[in-house]
Each structure stands twice: as C-alpha cells, then as structure tokens.
Amino acid sequence: MAEQEREKICAFQFKSGKEQVVFGLEHGVFSAIFESIFNQNRKELQVNLGGFDGEKVYLDWLKRPLEIGEKFELKVVRFALSEISMPLERRIVEPPSDDQLLKAYYDQKKELENAGLI
After folding, report:
1. Segments of the chain assigned E as strands
2. Where are the alpha helices (DSSP H) in the chain?
C-alpha cells in the first residue's frame, strides 16, 4: 500500500440532493442509521450519521428527516482525516457514577414490583 493510502482512514460518503457528507473516525465507531418508525405515537423516517470515539465523545454529522422517494448514495471510501466533514455536534458523555447506577436499579425494581412483574 502506498504511503499516502496508509494515511487515509476508512469512512462513509453520504450523498443526496441536499448534501454530501464524508464521515469516519480513526479510532472508534461510526454508523449510518436509517430509521423508519411508524406506530401509534410516532411516524418518522430519518437518517442519522454519527459516531463514538470509544472514550466519551459522541459525534453527529447529520440527523434529519427523510422524504418518501428521496434518493441517496452511501459509499465506503478512504479519506485523509483532514478531508472528513466537520461534525455538526460533539457531546461529551461521562459514564454514570455507582450511585447513579444504584438509584436507576432501585427505581426500575420498584416500578416492576408495582406492576406485579417481579
């Protein structure tokens, strides 16, 4: 593999009539999620392009509704980090403390007991 190719990372390229986004991470997880939610409470079609750096930073490159009949292309590509689109949002999420986890456990336990499920 040429030196230039080794400096590139695996990424996704999303193209539609509305935008073009190249997204990916050198380390972590990135994904393209296409949602179709149709139930009593929600009727939505949407695209979510995001990632997680494996530590505590979540990134969103694109999150918007889709339209019926909309066409788009998703391609696996190799790009230099400098060519990756800037995320629209970065969220730092600290892991819950032991006290927060215990509170959530006891709250859920009480809810299940009240419902007669345990």
Report:
1. 8-16, 20-23, 29-38, 43-52, 57-65, 72-80, 89-92
2. 3-6, 98-114
pLDDT at site 95:
83
Residues above pLDDT 90, as percent of the chain: 82
d(CA 46, CA 63): 7
Check: CB of residue 77 under 8 Å from CB of residue 12.
yes
Cα-to-chain-centroid distance, residue 112: 30
88: buried, middle or exposed (CB in 10 Å: 19+, 13-18, 0-12)?
middle
Task: Using alpha carbons only, give the angle 57, 61, 62 rounded to the nearest 5 degrees.
Answer: 130
Contacts 24+ apart (CB under 8 A), 29-33: 29/54, 30/59, 32/74
pTM: 0.72
Counted residue by residue, the chain has a size of 118
The tokens of 95 are what?
């892991």
Amino acid present at 38: F
Q: Indicate the SS3 state at residue 35.
A: strand
